[in-house]
Structures are given as C-alpha cells and as structure tokens.
Model the fold of this input.
Amino acid sequence: LTRDRYPVQRLPFSVVSEDDLAALERIVPGRVITDPEELEAPNVDWLRTVRGSSQVLLRPRTTQEVAHVLRYCHERNLAVSPQGGNTGMVGGSTPVFDEIILSTALMNQVISFQDMSGVLVCQAGCVLEELSQYVEERGFVMPLDLGAKGSCHIGGNVATNAGGLRFLRYGSLRGTVLGLEAVLADGTVLNCLTSLRKDNTGYDLKQLFIGSEGTLGVITAVSILCPPRPSAVSVAFLGCPGFAEVLQTFSTCRQLLGEILSAFEFMDAECMQLVGRHLRLASPVQESPFYVLIETSGSEAGHDAEKLSSFLEQVQGSGLVTDGTLATDQRRIQALWALRERISEALSRDGYVYKYDLSLPLDRLYDLVGDLRTRLGPSAKHVVGYGHLGDGNLHLNVTAEAFCESLLGALEPYVYEWTARQQGSVSAEHGLGFKKRDVAGYSKAPEALRLMRQLKALLDPRGILNPYKTLPAHA
Ligand code: FAD
Ligand code: MLT
Ligand code: ZN
Done:
C-alpha cells in the first residue's frame, strides 16, 4: 500500500530482537504489545492511506518510562514512531517500516489545574475532549477544538501545532502552550514545563517541539492556558449565493460582531451533499452554493443577541445571505457544528481522499476549487472546498472511487505550484508528516530547510525519532 505509492527505502536501523523485547518488557512491564491483531489499527492512519509494519507497540505511563525506552532505543539504534490518537492527516503517526510505536494512550493524567489563572498541566496522552470536559466543569474552556476531539491527544495536538475551530478566537498553540516537557532521542528529559505567562530567559525552546511532529523529541507533558468559559454562545448557520458573498459576510461580521466573533467556518454545496448522503445529516437551511457557520462567544447573552440580530438584518437585507438559522441552546449548537466538523468523515466514506490543507489569500481562497473541477472533469468523484475561512485556511479535498495515479498526477504538483504562486502555505495546519514532507520547499526557503535539518541532527543525531517524516527526503 505505502511503499509503491511513496517510494522510500528503509534506513539501516536495527531490527527488534527477542533480547530487545525482554529489555523493553523490563522498562514497561506488561505494556509491550506484540499481538498482530492489536497492532493492526496503530499501523494504519485515520485516512487509511498509509500502512506500516511495526511489530511492537509500547504503552509507557510515565516520563521516566519514556526516557528509559528512548535511552535504550538510542543505544540499540532502534527507530521509534510516537503516536497519540492516530488522527493525523499526513501519515505522521504511523510507522513507515518496522519502527517501534510509542503510544501515549496511558499517559492520561491531569497533573494540576489552577482555577484562578486557568493553567492546566497534564500528561501528553490526555484526550482533548476529556480535557475540555474537565476544564469546563471548572469554568474554563480549552483554547483549541477540532473534529477529532474524541480521539486526539493533547500531545499530538501540540506535536502537530493543530489549528482547528477556535483558532480565530484564541490563536495558535504557539501562544497558548506555556510550557512543555519532552524526552529527547537519547533519553534526556527536557523540563520546560513552566506555567508562566512571561519568560524571556533566552531561546523559547518549547517552540521547537510545537509542530515538530515527533521528529525532535517525545512530548510527555504540557502546560496550557485555558480561557474563561464564555457564558453566552450562539451559532448562526447561513446560506450564501456565491463566494464573493461569503467574503462580504465575513467582513460585515468582523465589523458588526467585533469582539464576540469566535469562529467563521465555511463549506460549499458539495460538502453539504456529502454529509447528507453519508452521515444522514440534514441541512438546516435552503440549498445554497455556500454555507457559513458563525459562532459568537460573550459574557452577556442580551448584548450578543442584539449584535447578532443587527448583523443578520444587514446581511439578509443586502442579499449576502439568502437563508439562515440561529441556535443558542447547547444541543442545537452541537447539531449545527456537526455539519461542519464531520465533513472529513463524510469524505472518507465517499472513497479515496486526496487532501490538501492550504493557507491562501482570502480573495483567492476558493478559486482553485472551481479550477480543479474543470481540470479534473469526471476523473474525480467530488472536488470540495471548506475550512477555517477566518484564518485564511482552505481544505481542498478530491475524492475518487479508489486511488488513481493519473488523478494524482493531475493534482500534483499543480495544487502546490498554484499555492506557491499565491505565496500560500502547502500545509496550513496538518503538518508534513510522511505524505507531505517533500513539498515543504513550495512554502519554505532552502536556507530554512537546511536549518531544520541541522536542528534535527543536533537533537536526534542517529535519526531514530519518526524517521521518513517532516524533513524532505532530498536536500
Ligand atoms: P497523532 O495522529 O497520533 O500524531 C500526529 C503527529 O504527532 C505524528 O507525527 C506523531 O508522531 C506526533 N506525535 C503524537 N504524539 C506525540 C507526542 N506526545 N510527542 C511527540 N510527537 C507526537 N487538525 C487541525 O489542525 N485542525 C483541525 O481542525 C483538525 N480536524 C480534524 C478532524 C478530524 C475528524 C481528524 C481525523 C483530524 C483532524 N485534524 C485537524 C488533524 C490533526 O492533526 C489531529 O487531529 C491532531 O492534532 C493529532 O493528534 P493525535 O493525538 O491524533 O496525533
Ligand atoms: C477540518 O477542519 O475539518 C480538519 O482539518 C480535517 C480535514 O481537513 O479533513
Ligand atoms: Zn481544519
């Protein structure tokens, strides 16, 4: 499956021996998994596009155990692939060959929560949705949210620098992660787990690990700043007649909703058809070429309702929006969010998915979708566009009955060259992992890529951490 599609050669790492298994068993007793059935799922990515052949999965519980495992693997020259919830979109979390899978699934303890500042310190394997629940019970929210919340781990979120649905309001994890602990390739524990808002004592080393996709160290704990839970949340789901109107609606929204705007997401008509067909979710508004989901979060429901109603009056009166619905109760809000959050699930049920995650200038954000519909014709089943419009992030997805080399040839490098011409990013939020590592050069200067390689060599001289990932294969 993997090897033919992405030509890659196994590097000369050691092969796990019986002696290694016995040594690992002493480090994580009872948590060395070698049962082929149990290894099936962690060897395959969420999109079912890549498959590894690892025969060993480890489930450490503590930082010390991770340190011992890595010290051992480093000495023995055994490659390791860190894995959280295995929801990544770029084949970063699954082994490529026989790398040992190091799972954070049992590192799921909250270490502390300060209910004055909202600082949460927890182990890397905590599931995002469980953390959300934990902090919400205490009057706070997690600064990030994504459709994969039920499975993804906070360590995986930090390792990918995940964006998601609250980015517009709370910004990047590069700002909300206050500190972290990571274990380096040789087993050294790097404790940068501070909870300070301000700390300019030299280089901000934690940033190296945020978005490093398991190639520089294994994140074992994080300290993260949670904002207060907004007491009033509303969601408007609106239909727009064209993409120009979507953009106009966004401008109007920023002017009229100001500080209460907390999300602005969009999806096209084909996305709505797919969530209808594959997930049986019904559209709450009349059929339209585009839909937007606008969320407001504030501290006073009356104030927000007033702002929302003058906004809705304006966009409907001027024809920017042709139909819409508004929800203020939790259940309806969740149902409206599901239409947007579950698009990736609907797509994966539609067939093989070619997935692109681009940062683009807003005025050109949707151009490529129409362009590709014409370019690909009937060779594609669906070409859809959706995403985090408020952050300039397009999710461009193409589906087909099965993987097809000529369809791939029509998409790549075309999509990447087009993006580079707009000075965009070929990976806005999903990272490079295994599948995108060779396209980094479309968005990063050669000098920057060289420095990435030097940093990798410094932190992981034997290259045992997530080999074949993130760094381009060719210099
Ligand atoms: P995994 O998939 O297990 O791993 C991802 C990468 O991080 C791998 O390279 C892995 O080696 C590394 N890694 C994992 N844990 C650690 C660790 N403790 N230390 C070091 N490295 C580690 N992404 C967005 O940015 N925005 C979205 O809105 C979004 N929505 C999604 C919706 C769905 C339905 C799905 C399936 C995915 C979505 N994603 C989104 C992709 C996103 O990258 C992941 O969901 C999430 O951040 C990965 O977390 P994970 O625990 O599953 O990590
Ligand atoms: C999303 O925003 O839905 C995610 O990034 C997942 C995807 O792009 O499919
Ligand atoms: Zn996304």
Summary: The chain has four domains: 2-106, 110-225, 232-343, 351-430. Residues 301-317 form the longest helix (17 residues). Residues 351-430 form a domain with the Alpha-Beta Plaits fold (CATH 3.30.70.2740). The pocket of D-malate (ligand 2) is lined by residues 147, 343-344, 357, 395 (CB under 6 Å).
